[in-house]
Amino acid sequence: MIFLRLKSGALIAALIMCTSVAWAQTPPAPPTTAAFRDICSRGVVGETIAHQLRSPCSRVPADAMGSIETLNLSFLGLSQLPADAFDGLTALTYLGLNSNELESLPEGLFLNLPNLRELNLSVNRFTRIPSAVKNLPALNGLFLGGNRIETVRVGDLAGLPQLQRLSLLGNQIRLVAPGALSTLTNLYELDLSHNQMQRLQPGMFSGLSVLQALNLVANQIESLTPGVFAEVPSLRILLLADNHITRIETGALADLQSVIALSLAQNQLHSLSGDEFDGLLALDELDLNGNLLNTIPGGVFIDQRRLRYLGLSYNPLRELHQNCFADLVSLRVLFLQEHRLQNPAHSTGEWLGLPESALIMAE
After folding, report:
1. d(Cα 335, Cα 75) in Å, to the nearest integer?
2. Distance between CA atoms of 91 and 219, rounded to whole angstroms?
3. Quick one: pLDDT at residue 16?
4. Contact, 115 vs 93, CB < 8 A?
5. What is the structure's pLDDT at 33?
6. What Cα–Cα distance (Å) separates residue 264 from each residue in 38, 253, 257, 280, 285?
7. d(Cα 358, Cα 330) in Å, to the nearest integer?
8. Where are the beta strands (DSSP E) in 73-169?
């Protein structure tokens, strides 16, 4: 029993239940383990999270995990991830796993990331779209470029209702199955450039009613056929440069009434019959540079009254019919470098029927 004397001089008693041994040898109780989250088992992922939180990975404050919004795990040589790698990161909006050596991901790896908006899986070793990317309700951007994906199958991209940007550039894609993208009803930007597709078939873009930009540069596409673009009525930019296109069938582009920019540069178009661009009423820029065109007949651009920029450079042009550009009443610039026209007069604005304000870039 210990007595304490107050300043007033009164005495009160306080009974302290402890032994002298316990008092001497028992240290103050440490904080409970519930106050910390042990993430050591997550390997380099846990170390990176701990470093970001400035804590040892075995003593990460439990409530701190939920405050991380951005996590960059690129260039770490990761070849696999534990299933609980991202548990507790409920506020995460961006996750970068690009430039690693990942071949597969655990099922449901990202399901506890309800706020994830951007997921970068570029430059890894995936041969197909990992099923772990499904069912991410808030995901806005998915980047899978630079992998080894060969086919986009129906169901590969299910459960991504908010996805707006999808990049699959630089893979080995030969086929996008009809309907494989149909669940991406909010997608506005799709990059399929630098793949190995030889043909575009009807149905491969079904469901993409709000798509604004489609990049198909550097594939092996040989021709454009009717119906391929019937289900992308909102498309504004279509890039088809650096393919093997030799012909554009009648009506193949007729559904693209909202397109303002079309690139067909660096293909193998030998001639234009006159109806290839029918229906492209909103076209502002048309790039036909670097093809094999030797003449431009009249009437080819009858629907392009809004066209302002036309590229015809680096074609073996030998003849331009008189007034062949008379329909291009809004044209500002005609690119006409490196042609083979025999008569210099046939490259003048007066001969071609161009507006007086149009500029011909022929040097």
Report:
1. 43
2. 38
3. 31
4. yes
5. 59
6. 55, 12, 17, 14, 11
7. 8
8. 94-96, 118-120, 141-143, 151-152, 165-167
Torsion over CA of 235, 243, 313 and 292, rounded to 10 degrees?
A: -130
What is the residue type of 249?
Answer: E
Domain boundaries, the chain: 221-363
CB 58 within 8 A of CB 36: yes
Name residue 34's amino acid. Answer: A
Token pair recorded at residue 226: 């009717």
How many C-beta atoms lie closer than 10 Å to residue 53's C-beta? Answer: 18
Q: Which amino acid is at 274?
A: G
Question: Residue 176: helix, strand or coil by DSSP?
Answer: strand
Instruction: Give the whole-angstrom CA distance, residue 204 versus residue 228.
Output: 8
User: 310-321: b or e for each residue (b if 16 or more CB lie within 10 Å)?
Assistant: bbbbbbebeebb
Specify the 3-state DSSP secondary structure of 189.
Answer: strand
Per 3-state DSSP, the chain is made up of helix, strand and coil in percentages (nearest 5) of 10, 15, 75
CA atoms within a 13 Å half-sphere pointing along the CA-CB vector of 168 = 27
pLDDT digits (tens, 9 = 90+) for 180-193: 999 999 999 999 99
Does residue 124 contact residue 97 with C-beta atoms inside 8 Å? yes
Report whether CATH 3.30.200.20 matches the domain 221-363.
no
Q: Could you say which residues of the chain have pLDDT below 50?
A: 1-31
| Rounded Cα–Cα distance for residues 42 and 21 (Å) | 42
| Start-to-end Cα distance in the chain | 105
According to DSSP, the β-strands at 237-239 and 213-215 are: parallel
- Give the CA count within 13 Å in the CB-facing half-sphere of 266: 10
- Of 291, 286, 322, 289, which Cα lies nearest the Cα of 304? 286
Bridge partner residues of 191 (DSSP)? 167, 215
CA dihedral 344, 350, 355, 356 (to 10 degrees): 90
